[in-house]
Every structure is written in C-alpha cells, then in structure tokens.
Description:
This protein has helices spanning 2-29, 31-58, 64-68, 93-101, 114-117, 196-228; strands at 81-89, 150-154, 158-163, 168-176, 182-190. The longest helix has 33 residues, at 196-228. By secondary structure, the protein is of the alpha+beta class. It starts with a helix and ends with a helix. A hairpin with a 5-residue loop joins strand 4 and strand 5 (182-190). Strands 1-5-4-3-2 form a five-stranded antiparallel β-sheet, with helices on one face.
Amino acid sequence: MRTKWMILGIVGGIVIICAAILAALMIWFGLWAGLAAGLAIAAMILLLYGVVFEPWARRWGATEAEVAAVMPGDELVPGSTAVTRAITIEAAPRQVWPWLVQIGWGRAGWYSYDWLDNDGKPSADRIIPELQNLQVGDRIPMIPGMGPPVRRIEPNALLVAGDTATAMTWCLMLTPVGPGATRLITRWCLPKSRNVFMLIWSLFFVPGHFLLERKMLKNLKTRAAQENR
C-alpha cells in the first residue's frame, strides 16, 4: 500500500537525518562535545515543540469555547486527550454535509495531500450520490481494512465515529453561524501518552495529523463554498 510506505519512508527519513546531524556534530566537535551539542539542540527543539507548536496544532482554528466544549464522543474514550480544530465555511450545513459523509480511503478520499494519504488517487471534487448513504455501524476506512465504526449520525449536523475498541473517537460537527455560513468543528479523542514509546510516536503523529487535517479542512471549505456559488 503506497500510503503506508510513504509514511514509513517519511518517518525513516527523519530518523536518518537526525542521526546524520548527530554524527556530523560528533565529527566536528569531538565525540562527547558533539553528543552534548546534539542533546542540547534536541532539548531545545522538544521544548519549542511542547510549549509552542503542539498546543497550537491541537487547536488550530478553534475558539476557546470550542476547545472547552463537551462534544459527542468525548465519553467513549475515558481519560483521553482531545484535539479540536475548526474552520468557517461559506455554505449552509446541508451543503457541507454531503462532503463529510462520503469521506474516507477508497471512498471520496480525504481532501488532503492525496499523494500521501490516499494512495496517490485524487480526492473527489464533486458530491458522489452512491456514497451518501453512510449509516451507523459502517466504517470510515482510514487505510484498507481499518477504520472507526460510525456511532452516531444526525444529518446536516453531526457525525461520530470510533469507540473504546479503536481507542479513539472522531466527531465532525456542523453549526450554522449566520446566513449561508457554517462552522465545521472536528474533535479527536485520543489515548494519553503513558509510556516513552507512545510519547515518541506522538512526536511524529501530532505534526503529521495536523498537516493532513488542516489541508482537509481548507479543501472542504473550498469545495463546499464553490458548490454553493
């Protein structure tokens, strides 16, 4: 599967680059001084990541009220950490909804970086009638054979997928914010990092997930607004 190998290639490339930089520092400054310099640089990057980037990425586009609000699906993964992002779309909820229910790998795609998360296949640029019948119990494929089951659907308003078995939930909520405009809020509830391996994984997951979802939200905004014209 192209998507899986692309992700593994990116992660592997980052690891190789970091190792190469550390090796260069050790050659340039000497073994221990180079190692100390590498650790100092890594500590500074991690500090900036934890203090500046991660909090911003976890709530991109969302207001304080949206971040603090309780959303459907929050209760399905006890003790989870929430990621809330949002965007305003110049279209009514009923015009945004069809784009949401057809989302997924092997369906309409993710409206994001197709070369990375959709096996290089272009995401749909139109509403596909045969993909509009999403029901509770159906799965939204993330990759072939894997994806969260739909738990709740309220047409033109709400879609919740995931449960304790998948250890995550995803809520997509549409709220009208005036004539012909909609607030699309997305909330992920994910397990907290409880060991060093989950912490390391989150260092790759959060930036990657942020870049993909930010692109998805922006493309959804463009597609739905164009359809509304």
